[in-house]
Design goal:
- The complex is a heterodimer.
- Chain A has helices at residues 3-7, 46-61, 79-87, 133-148, 182-186, 190-199, 231-259, 261-277, 283-298, 307-316, 319-326, 332-347, and strands at residues 24-33, 69-73, 103-107, 112-116, 122-129, 155-156, 160-161, 173-180, 202-208, 215-223.
- Chain A is globular.
- Chain A is built from 12 helices and 10 strands.
- Chain A has 2 domains: 3-253, Glutamine synthetase/guanido kinase, catalytic domain (Creatine Kinase, Chain A, domain 2, 2-Layer Sandwich), CATH 3.30.590.10; 260-346, no CATH class.
- In chain B, strands 1-2 form a two-stranded antiparallel ribbon.
- Chain B has 6 helices and 2 strands.
- By secondary structure, chain B is mostly helical.
- In chain B, helix 1 packs across helix 2 and helix 5 (133-153) packs antiparallel against helix 6.
- Helices cover 54% and strands 7% of the residues of chain B.
- The longest helix of chain B has 32 residues, at 157-188.
- Chain B is elongated, with a radius of gyration of 23 Å.
- The chains are: A alpha+beta, B mainly alpha.
- Chains A and B meet through helix 4, strand 6, strand 7 and helix 7 of A and helix 1, helix 4 and helix 5 of B.
């Protein structure tokens, strides 16, 4: 398997098949681990960094859970390829900044990935489609236990798994659920949701865009606390709160469709029209319009296109993906042309 | 250096934000930092706020000096990790530790900070390799008992009954093991 194959493949999490996938885009579990007796990555000597890389690579490749994997060293990849991995959520943006001694291991379905030498020596990630956080944790737990038989993890009885940043210590677990909440935004309920979430030991942020603006109404809810609670407790808690958010979004969608059906339909069809006809389109406008159509598909307003195709368009219209498809570097202006071309092609009835 | 907000107090909290390779630096005094903390958390993420939070943790002071939060001179600069030579002062600056042993070296300083971040300062989750069977069961039991209390509080009696049965079965299973380990320990002691 190589990177080019990934370009023409759909990641598991994009299939849009999981439970509640009309509202929950993906569920992710990340575990942070470090190797005992080594300094944390940022302070390790080059020889030690090399040693950690070899150790973790070897332990991961021997895992029965990671039979079909691709091992990539960041230093061997082009700038676009690294960005491509970030866009597919297989590595963090931080992981591609200083590529020396860094690597990522990716399974063939793009469900499991292991970042080696990020801020922590090992960052195991499981990414599932839809509302599947328990399954994601179960898989992460299984792979982690297996890796732990070959890797001497830094662990303290008192403080659990020791991480470079004390905000991750304890379980080292970060569960993140990506939600599409257009109805809660339209009805101005999202502010209250933000307030409530922050009081519950969770954080919520807009997925696209910076600061408080959430382009396309996509939000990511994650646990903030990692110490003093068991993994099952943390997963259960985020799961039950997201469940409530999903119910709220569902009922609001129903109300909107009963009270404002014509206005909603008009908005959705206009978005569809723009995407089908545009010749030049920015990434931000694309996300906004695709978000509206995603709602339209899930409300049954738009037919002839399915959720998987919409998810795929979100992925393919990102800068590095466009450049991989074109096979050359494109400046932002050229990308706006190419993006419009691809969208028209995919939406052609 | 003066605070960027009130322009009166000395800036003791320093934040750096990088968006699209553009670096923005913010220098704040303790009071303004506290006021801005909710906003900052949203913008900068919790990790970057840590360097600020660490400043709010009282540090060990040498005898004869009055305790102070932010005058660098009063900090016990002698605290250093024996394994990696990382100083607690460096942690205060960047919010990251040097190596796993730093947790032990800075134990008394980190404990209140961890409680502030997580609400707890003791791990109750997974243990690698299940190396200590007894401990694992104890942790599991504590976990289940806490959930049982919660279930009763919420009047979820079916769940409570299920948890009670689970606790009983684990208690039965672990008793003989506990004794075994204890006797092993005794043998180990000289």
């Amino acid at each position: 398997m190589n990177l080019e194959e990934l370009l023409h493949k759909r990641s598991e999490w994009l299939k849009g098949t999981g439970p509640k996938s009309d509202i929950v885009v993906s569920s992710r579990v990340r575990l942070a681990r470090n190797i005992d007796k080594f300094p944390f990555f940022n302070w390790a000597q080059p020889k030690q960094k090399e040693g950690i890389l070899a150790l973790v690579k070897d332990a991961a490749l021997k895992s029965k859970f990671l039979k079909k994997t691709m091992f990539l060293q960041m230093k061997d990849l082009s700038e676009i390829d690294r960005q491509f991995l970030v866009e597919r959520h297989l590595t963090s943006p931080e992981h591609v900044i200083d590529p020396q001694y860094k690597a990522v291991l990716i399974d063939d379905q793009e469900i499991a990935s292991i970042m080696i030498n990020e801020e922590d020596h090992v960052r195991l990630q499981i990414l599932q489609s839809g509302f599947n956080i328990i399954e994601a944790w179960r898989m992460a737990d299984e792979i982690d236990t297996d890796l732990g038989t070959r890797l001497p993890y830094a662990f303290s009885d008192r403080w659990g798994y020791l991480t470079a940043c004390p905000t991750n210590t304890g379980t080292g677990l970060r569960a993140s659920i990506m939600l599409h909440l257009p109805a809660l935004v339209m009805t101005n309920q999202i502010g209250k949701v933000f307030q409530a979430i922050s009081k519950l030991g969770l954080t919520m942020r807009g997925f696209y865009g910076e600061g408080t603006e959430a382009v396309g109404n996509f939000f990511q809810v994650s646990n903030q606390v990692t110490l003093g609670r068991s993994e099952n407790d943390l997963i259960e808690k985020i799961g039950s709160i997201v469940d409530k958010l999903v119910q709220r979004e569902e009922s609001t969608r129903n109300i909107l469709m009963t009270k404002n059906k014509d206005e909603i339909s008009d908005k959705i069809w206009r978005a569809y029209g723009t995407l089908k006809s545009a010749r030049i389109i920015t990434s931000s406008e694309t996300i906004k319009l695709l978000s509206v159509i995603r709602l339209g598909v899930n409300l049954g307003v738009v037919t002839g296109i399915n959720g998987t195709q919409i998810n795929e368009l979100f992925m393919l219209t990102q800068p590095a993906h466009l450049q991989k498809i074109e096979g050359k570097i494109l400046n932002p202006n050229q990308r706006d042309y190419k993006r419009a071309d691809i969208i028209r092609e995919k939406l052609k009835g | 250096m003066q605070c960027d907000i009130c322009h009166k107090e000395a800036a003791t909290v320093h934040l750096t934000e990088i968006i699209n390779n553009k670096v923005t630096k913010l220098h704040l005094c303790e009071n303004c930092a506290r006021e801005k903390s909710a906003e900052m958390e949203e913008h900068f993420g919790l990790a970057d706020l840590l360097s600020g939070l660490a400043d709010l943790v009282p540090v060990t002071t040498k005898k004869g000096k009055s305790p102070s939060l932010n005058t660098g001179a009063d900090i016990d600069v002698g605290i250093k990790c024996p394994s990696c030579s990382f100083t607690f002062q460096k942690f205060r600056k960047i919010g990251r530790l040097g190596c796993p042993n730093c947790y032990d070296a800075f134990r008394s300083q980190l404990s209140p900070l961890l409680r502030k971040i997580h609400g707890y300062d003791r791990h109750t989750g997974k243990i690698p390799n299940k190396k200590e069977v007894v401990k694992d069961a104890t942790v599991l039991l504590g976990d289940l008992k806490a959930r049982l209390t919660k279930a009763i509080e919420h009047e979820e009696f079916e769940e409570a009954a299920r948890l009670r049965d689970q606790i009983r079965s684990i208690e039965k299973k672990t008793k003989p093991e506990k004794n075994e380990v204890k006797s092993n320990n005794k043998k180990g002691k000289k």
